[in-house]
Amino acid sequence: MDNASLVANCLTAKQIASDDGFMRLLIFRLSMFVLGLLMIAAMFYMEGRFLAYHPNARILLMANNVWILLQSLAYIALLSFDIHRFSQSLPNSCDYLVTAAASVAVRAPPDIAMYGQCWSMFFLALERSIATACYKQYEKTTNVLIGWFMLSVQIVLPFLWIFLMVFDFNWEILKVSCSLVNTKTQNRFLILMSSMAALEIFTVLWLLILYVLNNVRLKMMNSELSRHRLTEKYQICENMRAIAHVFPIIITHFIFFCGTLVAQPINTYLHANQSAYEFHVQIETLNFLPFYAFALPIVLFIRNRWEGIEEGLRRVLVKIKRPVPEEPDDGQIYFQQLSQQFDRAAMRAEPKRSEGTLSRFRRVLSNRRSHHV
């Protein structure tokens, strides 16, 4: 690292340390993550262990929750490190800089957790695809080899991606902010982040297709109850419930993750002549992941209480307009069709019983007449 770059970084770090607004921004973000972490942990505790799902889905759903918690914890550690570093009054401005090793050690955990959550969503969609394709036998199997294999892969992949970022890292530089990006890895970082955004888009579309496919198959089963077992119908319903369970999470993460991914390059393009100090401040400002940590518990609360919220809204709308008759649910349709089958069977059997009784009565009369004769 040449002296000119070192002096520029020292001046930038000094400006950031003397900026009270930037310090308030860091404290605000830390508060968002802490509050979000507490609410997320409470929501996950109330959800339990997903005992209603297949063991493979249970493993992946629990892993997704763990990735979310680890992401919040890692960002809390990162922000706490920056707050402690920039809140000190150091005589030498270069003392605010961090080594490359410290930068990687502090910044890598949030990225690993973020990548892990993206891969967790992908593998959950893959597991639900297997359950959709093998819905006749999948519910009967208790082998969790698929779940543990997918969990192992989604743990290895984030570390592999971090290795691709730092295997030729310049370990001699001193950095202003904790990041995995330098002049060597900037293009590689953009490729990896764009790949993760594409992975999330693909997963969202994939889950939508799976939900529609399972919904169509469920309607076909309801119209042909005698041809399908209850375990098959249960597996289809489980597929839809698992997708509906995880879909709000991935949509929320997609909004804030891709929002950050899009906003930062646009800001760099619009402010091409900005100083290094302005660049670091705006990069931190346009990171929307703290809002994800705060918004996710609200989304989960609405999802878990949606039936009650929908019922309350329906009661309010009843006073405004005439109530719409409720459509029968799957259970009502099932029992209606079952009762119709019993009625048809009874109607077919009733003439036979009447004819048999009448014939027996005639035989009794004929026997009595022959006896008298």
From TrEMBL:
Transmembrane segments: 26-46, 66-83, 145-169, 189-213, 242-266, 286-306
Keywords annotated in UniProt: Membrane, Transmembrane, Transmembrane helix
Topology versus the membrane: Multi-pass membrane protein
Source organism of this protein record: Steinernema hermaphroditum
PANTHER family xrefs: SERPENTINE RECEPTOR CLASS ALPHA_BETA-14 (PTHR46561:SF11), SERPENTINE RECEPTOR, CLASS AB (CLASS A-LIKE)-RELATED (PTHR46561)
Name the record gives this protein: G-protein coupled receptors family 1 profile domain-containing protein
InterPro entries linked: 7TM_GPCR_serpentine_rcpt_Srab, Nematode_rcpt-like_srab
Annotated Gene Ontology cellular component terms: membrane
Cellular compartments annotated: Membrane
Predominant cellular place of this UniProt entry's protein: membrane
One Pfam family matching this protein: 7TM_GPCR_Srab
